[in-house]
Structures are given as C-alpha cells and as structure tokens.
Design a protein that fits this description.
Length: about 200
C-alpha cells in the first residue's frame, strides 16, 4: 500500500544531533521505498536563507530584530519553492529545523507573540521531533567541534532558547500538530531508535 507524502521537522539546540538524525531518518524511509527530500532552515540555496547564514556567522551585521522577518520570508520562499511542491507529488520532506526554531530563537528579540504572528499561517509539519538536550551539554558539543561559535551559541542565550523551545512546542501542540520529545543525551543509535519509534507511531502506523 502506498504511503502519502509527510512533512517532518527535527528541532533542538545546537549540538543536539539534528543534522545526523535527519540523514539517518531519511535513509530509513528510503529503505522502505519512499521518496524523501531532505532540507533545512535557514535554507542554504535560496537567497534569503543565504543572507541569514551570513548574519549568523557575523559576515552581515544585521540586528537581532531583523532576523525574525528574514526567517519568516525564507520560510515562505522555502514552502513555495520546495516543501509544498514536494509534498504534492507524494514525497516525504524532512527539515532540519523549521517553525519551532523561530519561535524559540527569534522570540528573544521581538517576543513570542510577534513571532507567532509572523508564522501562524504557515503549514505545520505532520510531526515535529524535538531532540532534548541540556544547554550546558549543547555548548560543550558545539565547542568540541573546534569551529567559531555563531551568534546564539552562548550559554545564557542557549538557556533562554531551551525555555523558549518548550513554549514553542506547547503552541505547536495547541495547533493540533504532533510533537515527540526525544532524549538527545543518548548515543546516536539510541536517539535514532527513539526517532524511528515516534515516526512509526505517528505516521506509519
């Protein structure tokens, strides 16, 4: 029996392993014969997403108050050009970050309700998978990479974002969308198993 396209988002603090789990989940779904489109936000190939990434890396000196509007514009472009056409042809879409990230991160600059107002008309994922990780562990994992830290990768900021994520997920649930919280302090295989169990329970039956 064919399975219709589904939209999933994997969320979490920096260092929680989202990019790794997106790739593993995509492989698992492809092994079931499903077409899978892997993407992420901010987008890498669309113009507004590239500008956001430059701002996060400190290349473009944009204020925190500008970013919520850019993220919303990037999401609209992302939906129109990639996500919705892919779902319409019956493929599955997995996004490395989506709306909950905006609600958690950008609310620091302009407030939660304002970010909701910018995003509330956008399509929700069928399932949002939150990789739950303590902010201290998050920063330690990021620092272990040996790369330059981006603008949100500061412990106090990550603690506020962590709190914001829980508010964001409560709002997502209130909209009738499914949410699964996964313990990201486990090893990769443990997280992978929990992610797959949530996908099976919510979307594959």
């Amino acid at each position: 029996m064919s399975v219709p396209g589904r939209f999933l988002a994997i969320e979490g603090l920096d260092g929680s392993g989202g990019t790794t789990q997106v790739a593993l989940l995509a492989d698992a779904l492809r092994q079931r014969g499903l077409e899978v489109w892997v993407t992420g936000e901010p987008t890498r190939t669309l113009p507004i997403g590239r500008l956001i990434r430059q701002a996060l890396q400190g290349v473009e000196p944009l204020s925190d108050g500008v970013l919520p509007y850019l993220f919303a514009a990037d999401r609209r472009d992302h939906l129109d050009r990639e996500i919705l056409p892919t779902l319409e042809r019956g493929a599955w879409v997995i996004s490395d970050r989506y709306m909950a990230s905006s609600l958690a991160y950008q609310a620091l600059a302009v407030g939660f309700e304002h970010v909701v107002a910018l995003n509330h008309r956008f399509r929700h994922p069928c399932l949002t998978l939150m990789l739950e990780l303590d902010p201290t562990a998050s920063l330690a994992r990021v620092a272990s990479r040996g790369e330059d830290l981006e603008r949100f990768e500061v412990l106090e900021t990550l603690q506020r974002v962590h709190t914001g994520y829980h508010q964001a997920l409560d709002w997502v649930r209130e909209q009738g969308a499914a949410v699964a919280v996964i313990d990201a302090s486990q090893g990769i295989e443990g997280v992978q198993a929990d992610v797959w169990a949530a996908v099976q329970a919510e979307l594959l039956g």
